[in-house]
Amino acid sequence: MLSFNKKIIIIISLVFFPSYIFAITFKKAVLIIDKHPSISAIKHDANALKYLSSIKGSTGDPVFSIAAKNFLIKSFRTDKFPMTGLEVGVSKKIPLSTKYSNQKYAILAKAKAKFLESKNHKQKLLKKLWIFLIQKKRIEKEKFIITKNLLWIKNMLRVSQKLYSNGKLSQPALFDIQIRKAELETQISNNQFSYNQILNKIGYLLNFKKQSIISKSIPWNILYKVSAKSIKKDYKKMRLQSLVLENKYNLTAKKLNYIPDLKLSLSVTKRHKVHPHGDLISLSASFPLPFSAKKYSQHGRALQKKYSAINNLNNYTVKKERNILLLNNTINKIKKELSILNKKSIRFAKSYRTITAKSYTLGRATYVEMLQSELKLQKISLQKIFLEEKKDTNMLSLKYILGEKLYE
User: Fold this and answer.
1) Residues whose CB falls within 8 Å of the CB of residue 69, separated by 6 or more in sequence, listed in order
2) pLDDT digit string, tens, across residues 207-219
3) Which of 158, 189, 231, 269 could join 280 in a cystine, given CB atoms 3.0 to 4.6 angstroms apart?
4) 186 contacts 150 by C-beta, under 8 angstroms
């Protein structure tokens, strides 16, 4: 014979949680998330920045020029005027500082920050998956409790109908018990709707409609392993550090921008052979004078951006330490609450309901006391489930902030 609890589990499994064809392991889910379109988009942005770094680090191509010079308007002959000829030239911008190298390094640092952003985004999606799985587990537990209570109420309803037929219970009292039965059925229906919503959310992350994960493959022990020796990679902090480096390189480039680039030009003018002194050659150098407000404004802007990046990093570091402290305090508080619930409240509520049910069957307790005992036990049981979900969620947030792996 199956025990009462096993019967409940079988009923819930068959009615409320049918097997989905697209069930996969947790490890497979991690691999799917790694290829999520939002992560791929960020990685492509990082690769695009790498190409941009080559552009920013380049002084540009040499410029080739060809010109017909000093021809008389009345005649296009090349032998009439000594300065007439065909000029062929080439010019090139020559940097007098390392500003282009610094511009390149700034963009490379930005590309690294973007790549780290993709890593952090993967962690965010994994955290979201864990949150959905925690919520799914909570819904399953709630359905187990409510279904168990529903069967208990049905049993009490049969007892009540006997009491009613014997004239020991009023009709309004019988209606109250039936109303409670309907309330439990409504709760189960609502929970089933919530369960389907969670499956749809998991499906989005895994790119499949109503994707489900095999329960036995979920490494729940990961949530409870927070070790000082474990490898920690805080991608968010690493990203902010790369942005600081980017702004440092950018500021150096803007400082060096006061040193102008030199433009060298070399040209040869091909003249007619009648001119005894042959062809002409020209060499010129030019550079802009840094007197405009543009360069000063660029320097000032780069300086402020650097300060902003440093402050963002410092703020994150302080905020992270504070959040770790708050999460640890919250987790310890929840653990104490759960300990009291498990050792005292639930045990007392179960005993209270059992005694009240027996007394009600013998006509020694009122239907109100019977319903109150059932409501009290359900309230405490659901409170326990809520606290377990809250504890798991806070443990997950702690691991995410510490930079620990969210998968095996």
Assistant:
1) 83, 84, 85, 86, 87, 269
2) 776 567 888 999 9
3) 269
4) no
Q: pLDDT category, 245, cuts 50, 70, 90?
A: very high
Q: Which amino acid is at 138?
A: R
Provide the 8-state DSSP code for 97. Answer: S
d(CA 374, CA 262): 88
Q: Residue 274's pLDDT is what?
A: 65
**Distance separating alpha carbons of residues 14 and 368, to the nearest angstrom:** 33
Which of the four pLDDT bands, split at 50, 70 and 90, describes residue 224? confident
| Structure tokens given for 78 | 């090349």
CA torsion through residues 47, 50, 56, 60, sign: negative
User: Mind listing the domains of the chain with CATH numbers?
Assistant: 15-402 (1.20.1600.10)
* Residue in the structure block whose two tokens are 């990082």: 46
pLDDT reading at 270 higher than 50: yes
CB 93 within 8 A of CB 50: no
pLDDT at 232: 82
Strand, helix or coil at 200? Answer: helix
Write the CB contacts of 372 (distance below 8 Å, at least 6 apart in sequence).
356
The answer to whether 331 touches 339, Cβ cutoff 8 Å, is no
**Angle between the N-to-C axes of helices 346-361 and 367-402, in degrees from 0 to 180, rounded to the nearest 10:** 160
In the structure encoding, which two tokens stand for residue 115, read together?
A: 């790549």
Sign of CA dihedral 333, 338, 339, 345: positive
Answer yes or no: are the C-beta atoms of 395 and 223 closer than 8 Å: yes
Write the CB contacts of 185 (distance below 8 Å, at least 6 apart in sequence).
150
Side chain identity at 52, as an amino acid letter? Answer: L
DSSP letter assigned to residue 215: G
Q: How many residues does the chain have?
A: 408
